């Protein structure tokens, strides 16, 4: 049993140990401890300065590489998309400077950008599912080629979007068709517009660049019972439709991560074989690659471009044939179906 004498002895032992420690620290061990701590601080300071120098050097090298790519862009891009019309579809809030840079790179490649549109939150809002289903039922009546009955709302909306951007008037190929104009109007109007236009649609597009926004932060669990977090399906449906209906399509993505759309495409064997992706289009290198990748996709060459495993740094060089925009008389156009390019899988024939 522990008694009072035991407590007294314990306390005396503690104070003796403390006194011995103070005496040693202030006496014989003072210089040794001080020198050791000083040496450690100096070593850490030297390591910090070395790491800062390495970081500065890496930043300088990266800036030099980007400057070289930017200076080489005109030579790389010249004529690669001559006379093509390319629509930009923004899947989310994409930084304005990135949109401007992509637009400029496409123009340097010889293309024009007749339309830039952004999908609004209403495109995937779980609370507007019924609204989208009803709208899709209206939209399919304006499609030149309706999707299968079991295609689903996401595919119907995506087809309507792409045909609205690419549908050309057969008798006046530089103008959008009446059905295409109606589709864009229905998607971008009403109390819950699914589409936001960045200016006027000045003509039909031949090809489409689908631009993904910055990586999203992990979403908090929704307190609404039965609510579903929107996945990549809606975005992939847009990319599928863009490739199927237009001359060709490219996904301009951000960094490749397990959650990125590039990862979703490359993880699907069938999609990976027919959909083209470009990673890191938030920097100048990726932005220069986008027009080259689109030209290759129009020519029938598919690939995934960027830096990392299973990615190629640069698309193959291709030479696209001139665009044929010969007007078609109403009699000749009857029974021909859609006036769109028909997708890159059909080759470079019948473009325009």
Secondary structure blueprint with pairings:
Layout (H helix, E strand, L loop, with lengths): L3 H23 L3 H48 L8 E5 L5 H13 L7 E4 L9 H11 L13 H14 L1 E2 L2 E5 L1 H11 L6 E3 L9 E5 L21 H13 L3 E4 L8 H6 L2 H6 L1 E3 L5 H15 L5 E2 L24 H4 L19
Question: What features would you describe in this structure?
Answer:
The chain is α/β, with parallel strands linked by helices and 352 residues long. It is 47% helix and 9% strand. The strands form 2 sheets. A 7-stranded mixed beta sheet has the order 5-2-1-6-7-8-9, with helices on both faces. Strands 3-4 form a two-stranded antiparallel sheet. Helix 3 (96-108) crosses helix 10 (284-298) and helix 4 (129-139) packs across helix 5. The longest helix is centred in the N-terminal third of the chain and has 48 residues, at 30-77. It is elongated, with a radius of gyration of 30 Å.
Q: Round the Cα radius of gyration to an integer and report it.
A: 30 Å
Order of helices and strands: HHEHEHHEEHEEHEHHEHEH
Distance between the termini: 99 Å
Neighbour order of strands in the largest sheet = 5-2-1-6-7-8-9
What general outline do the C-alpha atoms trace? Answer: elongated
Integer average pLDDT: 82
